[in-house]
Structure formats: C-alpha cells, structure tokens
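stage 2 :: seqdesign
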C-alpha cells in the first residue's frame, strides 16, 4: 500500500502535465484550421 501511494504521488502529477501539454498542442493546432475555414451559416 505504501508503494502504491508513492507511485501515485509520482504518476498523478506526471499524467496531469502530459495531458495538459497534449490539450494545449491540440488547441494550438485546431485554431488555425477553424479560422481558415469558417462555418457556413444558413440564411
């Protein structure tokens, strides 16, 4: 149980950092595509 707690203290911040970086990369990659091709609105 102590080992699991120790590993969790290392892995939880690591995964948070990795997923945050992944979200930022996706957000940065998606912004130019949306600006280049705006949605067409029906009248």
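stage 2 :: out
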């Amino acid at each position: 149980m102590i080992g699991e707690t120790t590993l969790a203290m290392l892995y939880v911040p690591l995964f948070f950092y990795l997923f945050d970086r992944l979200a930022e990369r996706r957000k940065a990659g998606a912004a130019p595509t949306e600006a280049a091709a705006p949605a067409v609105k029906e009248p």
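stage 3 :: structure notes
- The longest helix spans residues 2-36.
- DSSP finds one helix and no strands in the chain.
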